Structures are given as structure tokens and as C-alpha cells.
Hydroxypyruvate reductase
Amino acid sequence: MRDTSRRQRRVRNCDLPPQSEQSTVSTPDLLDTTAADAKAIFRAAVRRVQADRLLNSTDPDAWAPQPLGHYEGIRVVGLGKAAMAMMGTVEQVLGDAMTDGYAIVPEGYPEHLPASCPAPTMGTVVEGGHPLPTEAGVRGARRIVEQAEAAGADELLLVLVSGGGTALGTLPADGMALADLKRTYHLLLRSGVNIQQMNAVRKHLTQTGGGQLARAAAPADVGSLIVSDVVGNDMSVIASGPTVPDPTTYEDAMRVLYTRDLWTEVSGPVRTRLSTGARGRRPETPGPEADCFERTSNTLVGTNRTALAAAREAAEARGYAVRQEAEEVEGEARSVGKAHVQAMLQAAPDSPTCWLWGGETTVTVTGDGKGGRNQEVALGAALAMEDASRPTVLLSGGTDGIDGPTDAAGAWATPMTTEKARAVDCDPKDHLRQNDAYPFFDAIDHLLRPGPTHTNVMDVHVGLSLPEDPQP
């Protein structure tokens, strides 16, 4: 007989009704309990990377090239999904030293600020478009560039950078119209390119990415607080690196479009700008040798690793042994979901076990359905585990609370998911074929809906597995 004491303690810790010695937990109830654990672990991961937790654990004098008391004034600008929450926390730290503030967040974010995050009272928060830019975002990006240009040599421009900042802070470069950029962004999003390739293109079509905001602020000091939403935490990629030297070139941007057969699909002005830049007829984005970076510091304050560490703590507190914790997960979403399940099912744990993965998958869109990469991870997992006998759950969620153009952060799957779906006339293979994971999981109430979290450190995948005979 296997020792089940850890499992019994874990069930009681979840405040479930007490079980008698002879009672058993039915498979659906057991899976529901395990899914609840997965959701709690995901919530713990997200909470650890929200602005108040991240910034209050840092030394404010490390936010800038010089101690904050050195500056006669501090201008604060932010772009990205965490910008509003970060600015509220920064306001509390800076007090009267903050002379102005301006942040751009996605539409609807100001109404959904978590209660744990202080709301800005001095700075202005505006809403822009994501994942495609809007006119409101362009106006906001122009204000941010104006703040940078107005900063004096004795001032600090404090820049709050997080995922989504590229689209939110889009200010078209000379010769570019918003329509040109929207079409290009849309094509890139559907092509399956990774974020490094996507931003190599986007930073060469705007006035903010690729270190250009730091150049606009010279001769002021620039300090950036950065929450990473990219695999590997390359700061030149996060929100297109507005204050970071750019290692990419116009030629790199052209190569991305050519290799994805998008060169003839983008507009003429986009082709003209990139091709003339590649021929040296316009200045490159500032690289490591640019003088503006001599007075710039960039500080990484939150990463996917930070979230995974909190997830591990939460899993262990619920009685799970964490078997694997891996960052830098990439690849086609459905294939990643299948691979996760295979790794879990090949193991034979004799106690409740947790697998944790972090990163960001991609979806090559071939259908006309509705969904996001995390929902597609979960749908790929559902098909891979439909014959599993061991109680197993795979949850995939975006830490920003939003997955693709939906109101969900992701979804979860169990061995009963496909059976439940077919019972309500949802064919899992057809939904996967059509990139239509959202209505599939919505029909069986398996969508993860935390709402906007005001942070973004990519995705967290939580796999939980119980022994095949968890009861005595």
C-alpha cells in the first residue's frame, strides 16, 4: 500500500469537506480539486511579479545612474502592461521628487487595477491599442517622446518598461502612417515569428524602440526599470528596447520579412524605409557605441524565473513535489502542450508531483477561429492526455491575464476534457485545426479568467500529476 499522507494533508489544506476513512474521491472531484490547485499555483506566480512586490524589493537608489537625491527633478514615463501599476508604486517612493508622469496601458486596464497595486495620483495614464497600435497610443507615444526631449541635464527620465510596450508606444517613423504599421504588425503576429524577429522589424519603423527614447532624452540621465516578457530576458527586445542599445539593423528587419514571405505583403512605405536604411541612406537605431548610453542604466526587476520561484513555493505548500522547473519554453503551442503531457505521463510518481514551465510559445494561424497561444497549449495537451489513467492536469496561462484577442489568460486540461467537450458537440481536433480553442474551453468552463493583472513575464505552465491509486 502506498503512503498517501501527503495527499490527505494537501486535500485538507484546500478546505475541502473532511473525508471519512472509508470514503473515496471520485475521479471528476479529484480532477476538480487538482485543477483548483493548479489555478492557485498560477495565481501565486502572478502575484509575485506585480509591481508593488517587485519594486518594493529593490533599492530605489539603484534605479538610475546616480542616487535619486542627485536630481533636481524626475520625469516618469511608462509603456506596457505593467506601466500603470509601476507608476503608482514609483510615485509612493519618489514623492515630491517626481515632477511629471505619463504612462500608456492597454484599453480597459485603468478600470482593472488590482487592489494590491497603488493607483497613480500625480501621473497621467492613457489607453493605447494592443496588440495593434491605435491613434490614442500614437498620441501617448508622442507625449512620452516629448517628455524625454524636455528633460534637462540635471534631471532624470525614469522609464517603466514592460511587455506590450511596442504596440502601446508606437510612434511611426518619418514616412510611416499608422495604417502601414498596423498591417505590418498584423502580418507578423499571424506568421509565427518569435518576439526577437518581430521587434527587429518594429523598432526600425518607429521613433521609440531600439534605444531611440534614450537618444531623445540626452543629455538627461535615463534609468529604466524593466519587467521582462521575453525568453532569455534580452533587454533590447523587451518592448523593443526603448532605452537599450540595438544590436539589430535594417537589413535584419528585411530578412525577417523575406524569410516569412511577407516582403510583398507589407506596404510600399515599409519596404522603402527598410530598404533605404539597409543601403545606409538613413541613420541606424543607436547601437552600443552611441553616447546617449553613457548616462543610461537599465535594471531588470522581474522575470519569468521570479514567477516560477513563487509557483514552486505555492506547489510545495500544497504538498506537491516539484519535479521539474524549466524556463525558456518556445515552439508551436500545440506541440508544446503535447510534449508537456508526454513528459508527465512517462513519469510514475508515487506522490503528488508538479511540473513547472515558463516561456512563450507561438501559433502559426491557419484557421479562422478564436483563441490564444495558452489556450492552444492546453488544447494540444487535452488531446495528448485523453487516454491517461493517472489524474493529471495541465494549465497554461499568460501572466498578463490576457491570451490573444480573448478575455481569458489561458485554459486547463485533464484526461476528461475531450470527453466533456464531445458531450456538448465540440470536436477537439476540429477546434485545434481551426485555431479555435476559446469556444472549445468556454463550452466546458475550463477557461482561466483572472482579468488584466498589470504585469507580464510571459507564460506559466503548471502540470500536476497524482499517483494512479492515491487512496488507500
About this structure: The mean pLDDT is 92.
